[in-house]
Write a structure and sequence with these properties.
alpha+beta; 4-stranded antiparallel beta sheet; 3-stranded antiparallel beta sheet
């Protein structure tokens, strides 16, 4: 083999050998849509670590803004206390069902200072009367008071109570998906948001959609967490709407 043929043969071998850059990334696994560059995973915003598999706690809000769901972040190791208080779908996260991925959002601000509960001396049909005080050590089990009951309560109230400027109507006026929280839903806002400095709540009373009877409904004081009864016509009680996600 003459020198020219040998040179061409050697050049062909060199061309066939993968580049160092390709070799460096061949065994690298990069997560969360990151890319490998010369053996190093280049992480997108919100992720960190050698393989970009760790959520950057400082970027949780950025990830939510980009469309990453609370359930995805929870499954990636973010604790609930780091999700609660963050903005998602135009509301403040305060409850997440970690099995289904559904949850609840509070509106960004209070709706009205002067809204009554409404329909005094009217026992709303299809709205269970909750007459027991909540037990601090147990989850609510009474229909009308539980997590998930606020929307049903609001629908029942508005089906029979047509007064203006009442709590349920002020919540629904924001949009069809918004409603007045049940007793346990409001308590979750108190525990998961207000006690941790989220939501800009006032240290006063807030209405729930949970009815006691035709004359009274349940409220919660955000100064000390106490849940009790107020006459439906009282207007010095704040209103905070919520919705599902």
């Amino acid at each position: 083999m003459n020198k020219l043929k040998f040179f061409i043969f050697l050049l062909g071998i060199l061309i066939a050998i993968p580049s160092c850059k390709e070799d460096a990334c061949e065994s690298i696994i990069c997560l969360n849509n990151s890319t490998c560059n010369e053996g190093t995973c280049e992480c997108p915003t919100g992720y960190t670590g050698v393989d970009c598999g760790t959520v950057d706690h400082a970027k949780i809000q950025d990830l939510l803004n980009s469309g990453v769901t609370p359930k995805t972040l929870y499954d990636d190791g973010i604790m609930l206390e780091h999700l609660y208080g963050k903005i998602y779908n135009d509301g403040i996260i305060f409850y997440l069902n970690t099995t289904t991925g559904t949850g609840l959002l509070a509106s960004i601000e209070d709706e009205n200072l002067n809204g009554s509960w409404g329909c005094y001396d009217v026992d709303i049909s299809n709205l269970n009367n909750v007459t027991d005080f909540p037990l601090a050590s147990e989850s609510e089990t009474k229909d009308g008071a539980k997590i998930g009951d606020g929307q049903m309560n609001t629908n029942a109230i508005l089906a029979e109570c047509f007064e203006e400027e009442i709590a349920a109507k002020l919540c629904r006026n924001i949009g069809a998906e918004w409603f007045l929280p049940s007793r346990d839903e409001l308590n979750s806002m108190y525990n998961n948001l207000h006690l941790n400095g989220h939501g800009n709540f006032a240290n006063v009373s807030y209405w729930t959609s949970t009815e006691y009877d035709g004359f009274s409904a349940w409220f919660q004081n955000f100064n000390d967490g106490f849940q009790g009864l107020r006459i439906k016509v009282e207007t010095n009680i704040l209103i905070r709407a919520i919705k599902h996600f």
